[in-house]
Design brief:
This protein is mainly alpha-helical and 175 residues long. Helices cover 71% and strands 2% of the residues. The longest helix is centred in the last third of the chain and has 34 residues.
Length: 175
């Protein structure tokens, strides 16, 4: 049986986080660029919602792999740093779902408005502004959340595993 939680002896969470760290901010940036620069939106086309969908798909896969890893780390469910990291990780999914929805709207509303003569409200300035403001807000929050999750994960992984001075034998020298 294939273990999807390990790859080449490493927990897949350690590998998958790189996809999330790249895909979520990238989706956020190209969504905001598409909101603010119509020519870029036209040029990026369907790429923007596709990247946001990739980010959305990566998040639950990564959090599942993280839960698997948490159960295999000594005191993983009682270490407050690991618990905080897991709590923050669980909060990312709604933001990436919102980012995907708004990226699809930023791309799709102008396309639908151009194709449909019977739905002029879709292309109205008010709707575009509302979607744009929401898209920028959700993009900022999703990106900040990725930073917070990464920072808490780094603290959980390294807080008691790092020696300020090079090891001498088996001991960490004190300064």
């Amino acid at each position: 049986m294939i273990n999807v939680n390990e790859f080449n002896g490493l927990p897949t969470h350690i590998l998958l986080i790189h996809l999330v760290v790249i895909a979520v901010p990238l989706a956020a940036v190209i969504t905001v660029v598409s909101v603010l620069w119509p020519a870029a939106r036209r040029r990026l086309g369907v790429t923007t919602p596709i990247v946001a969908l990739l980010a959305l798909v990566c998040v639950p896969i990564t959090t599942h792999a993280g839960t698997w890893l948490q159960a295999r780390v000594f005191h993983g469910f009682s270490n407050p740093l690991i618990v905080r990291h897991a709590q923050l990780g669980d909060q990312l999914l709604p933001w990436t779902a919102g980012l995907f929805l708004l990226a699809a709207l930023v791309w799709g509303l102008p396309v639908l408005a151009a194709r449909s003569g019977s739905a002029p409200a879709l292309g109205s300035v008010g709707v575009r502004i509302a979607v744009g403001v929401l898209a920028v807000a959700v993009a900022v929050v999703a990106t900040v959340q990725v930073y917070r999750i990464g920072d808490s994960g780094a603290k959980a992984a390294w807080s008691s595993n790092f020696c300020a001075q090079p090891y001498v034998g088996d001991t960490c020298p004190t300064t």
